[in-house]
Amino acid sequence: MSGLELQVDLDKIANNATQLVRRCARRQITVTGVTKALLGAPEVAQVLIDAGVGAIGDSRVENIEHMRQAGIHAPMVLLRSPSQSQIEQTVRTAAMTANTETVVLEALGAEADRQRCVHDVMLMVELGDLREGLMPAQLDEAVRSALSHPALRLRGIGTNLACRSGVEPTTHNMAELSMLVDSIEDRFGIGIEIVSGGNSANLGWAFGHNDLGRINNLRLGESILLGLDPLQRTPIRGLHTDAITMSAEVIESQRKPSKPWGRRSENAFGEIIDEQDHGDCWQTIFAVGRQDTDPEDLGAPPGITIIGGSSDHLVTRTDRRMTPGEPVRFRPGYSALLRAATSPFVSTVFSSASTASFDRSLLAGGTANGHGMSLLHRFKAFSRLEPDV
After folding, report:
1. How far is it, in rounded angstroms, from Cα 389 to Cα 386?
2. Reported pTM
3. What integer is the mean pLDDT of 225-248?
4. Does residue 258 sit in helix, strand or coil?
5. 3-state helix, strand, coil in the chain (%, to 5)
């Protein structure tokens, strides 16, 4: 093992999920619990189900398939439009998919008919963030396409904001989504069951406005896993922000100048670094790099300042000499978590004060990171922070 670990506290994730499900329920909003940041870990999926989410959402068919094989039987939503090469897997494993292309709807309909099942679809509409979605003027055509296939059921309309361009959910764009749903229902004489207003970035809007219109679903991942509001990366009241930490070992700690010397050009990543001179300092290197995580999105404990990272080295300034082999826990942000969960060099360790929230038999024979490495499952007692609600 490399000594790199993502340490996932399932009890803290359970607390976060339970709190958010309850708060959303008070606003008549259901929650789709999103597992993609941890590669569809069945352990996390079971915790979310026990906390009351209505469905599990993921962007990768492979993750959904892995959860199915591990015994997760909750409704699964593929949050990204299916690839044409994965239509068969998609219909077989996902109850519902997000869609933006009529050609994909036709393929889903044909495959669902072949599998003798009905496949639910949610049409995604573009409201300004420019990641994915039909333009509002295209929505009617997509609705007609979905309704024309006997093996498809148009169950929802949704949108996505803040992921690519940082466009915030507002009264204006959420009202536009509600109006689009109303107009579709009137024109086609149908009922739209699910109106998914967005992701964790919508929580401030959802909890801060009296009139939510037709919005009755949110897809929550970062807020549950990290306890943060993605718009400003600020802690959400009552939630744990340390449910996931990343442990890395010291491999060097030497007294060095803080400013590089010699003629300089671009570094290995095409960057020109302008280091300030802080005098001699303890430069401590950890065995983790850009191949494992996003160094710029790691939070370091007191006494450690991250100053840079290469493929395999995290360079820091520390207030003391540290001993090679000494482990330190960093707090990953969403970008750092996503990369770490995907790296074959990072083990994922799940801990819980009890196993009551999920069936330990689900954990047998699991694989870490989808790369064939055995997961470590360690269960240890720890004190829980009582939520401020």
Report:
1. 9
2. 0.89
3. 97
4. coil
5. 30, 25, 45
- Neighbouring CB atoms inside 10 A of 217's CB total 24
CA dist 69 and 354 (Å) reads 23
How far apart are the C-alpha atoms of 190 and 123, rounded to whole Å?
Answer: 14
Give the span between the Cα atoms of 37 and 55, in whole angstroms: 16
- The pLDDT score that the predictor gives to residue 1 is 54
Record the tokens describing residue 266, joined without a space. Answer: 């671009």
Amino acid at residue number 23: R
CATH topology of domain 10-232: TIM Barrel (3.20.20)
Distance CA 358, CA 368 (A): 18
Instruction: Give the DSSP H or E segment for 53.
Output: none
CA–CA dist 351, 231 (Å, integer): 29
* Residue 134: DSSP 8-state: B
Q: Long-range contacts for 189-192 (Cβ within 8 Å, ≥24 apart)?
A: 190/147, 190/154, 192/154, 192/155, 192/156, 192/157
Tokens for 39, please give them.
Answer: 């590669």
Mean of pLDDT values over 349-365: 58
Asked if residues 287 and 246 have their Cβ atoms less than 8 Å apart, the reply is no
